[in-house]
Every structure is written in C-alpha cells, then in structure tokens.
Sequence to fold (293 residues):
Amino acid sequence: MEIRQIQSFVTITQTGSFSGAAQLLGYSQSAITVQIRLLEEELGVRLFDRMGKKIGLTSQGKRFLLCADEILKQVQMAGELKNTGEELKDPLHIGTLTSICFSKFPPILQYFREHHPRVPIRITTASPGELIDMMEHNQLDLVYLLDRSRYSDRWEKVMEVPEPVMFVASPRFHLAGQKEIYLEQLLKEPFLLTERNENYRRELDQFLESRGVTLTPFLEISSTEFIIRMVCENRGITYLPYFAVENNIEEKNLMVLNVPDFKLQMYRQIFYYKNKWKTPEMEEFIRLARELR
Fold:
C-alpha cells in the first residue's frame, strides 16, 4: 500500500470523480484507476460503487476513508518534523469575501511578503456557498468568510470571531443626530449596498420581505471600498460589517446609526477541509489571522 494510492483515494472522495482527482493530482485518469484497483486488491474489498459516470463509497470504502484520513495526517506530521526551520515556499490559495479581503488581508499579505517572500498567494473572492463548495472540492486551502456560525463534520474550524453588521452614514447625514432611527425611516433614503449574494445583505432582504417590504438600493456594487467612499461623501447610507467601516468610524468619517428594530450579528470564520493536509503555509496564515482578529 502506497501513500500516493491513499492520497488518490481521498482526493476522489473530495472531487467526486476519478477524472477530477487525476486533474488535481497531475496523473492520468488511467493511472488513478490503476492505483485504486491495486489498493482494492491489497485490501480485499471494493471501495467504490461505479454507477455509470457516478461513483459512491461502499460501506467498506467509508470505513477505509476514516483510516485514510488518519494515515495522511500522520504522514503530514512526520513531514513537518523534517521541514521545521525551513523557509516557507509552497503555494497558498485562500477563498474569501471582498469586504474581508479589503479590510483584513493587507497586513497579513504584507507580513508574508516581508517574512515568506517565496510563498505564492492566490486569493479568490466569491459568495460563502461558492467558497465552501470550492473548499470541499480541494480547490482552496482555506476559506475565510463572514456568515452565521457554520459547522460541518467535514470541516475544521480554526477561528470564529463575532462581528456586528450595522447601518452607517456620514456625520452630515440629516438623521445622524437622532438617538434612534427606525428602519422604515431609512428605507426612504438612498442606499448603497453590496450585491445580493453577500450573506448579510441577504439577511436584510429576507427581514424586509417578512414584513412585506422591499428595498431598492440606489447602487449595488461588489466593492465595499467604493461604497464606503461614497457614504463618507454623504451620497447615501449603507449596511456593512463593523470590520469594514471600523477605521472610518474611529476617524469620524462615518457614524453608526442606531436602528433598534433590526440588529444582526454574524461571525468571521476560517475553515479548511478535514481531508486537507494543513501545510505550514496554512498554519502561518491562520496564526496571523488570529493575531489580527
């Protein structure tokens, strides 16, 4: 039994196909097929049910997957002993939201550039659902998202930080001096909002729909940076996570509007897939994100 056979087996379970595993691992599909056949012959069991183009784990395959995960983790631990003190240089692919990337990534990327310049970093932004799907298909090393607290026995969660989402406006906004502003009052104002696939935007839309009300924003755009700039110029109001507007609030370019009839708290969370080897580069990113939380 070879480690590459076990890795191929686990990758097939992640991608859902022999061809997908072959593409990720850099093998031909026939080589993957041979590896699994040899593995099944050695174990004396059938690991996959093949139903046309679809495959699924047999009951023996499900049992072996637990063993395979543990074997690969032990191999990784042994490899990390060897690599202790060596320069980090392997690629790191992170999936995140545009707002988190803009607000939280610059100091982390700066640290990597100064201390680990040989690590090529790739960042993909998408919706939480799309990011999680990519993670589970081994297309991302880590996912850093903002959502309601999420759990799965398929993921390792390595960070969770509560994050309020709030209405903000320029101090020059005509309702800025009021102690309380009800949502119905704000709906008459020009809103600048992120696109509907952002989960905190979706929560707001669903709340309004439950009251038979819809919100048609003046502007929808994926760039939180542009929204913040426009709101600082008193060209409208917005609804964003606190981390995205924290600096502007401290500098008094923006202020929080107290809207008592709609409060939302979400969580910044970092996950990786349980079957994924946690590389030293991943560990370093996680360490920095926790320190800069």
User: Anything to note?
Assistant: The mean pLDDT is 89. The chain has eleven helices and eleven strands. The chain has three domains: 3-83, 92-162+267-291, 165-263. Residues 92-162+267-291 form a domain with the D-Maltodextrin-Binding Protein; domain 2 fold (CATH 3.40.190.10).
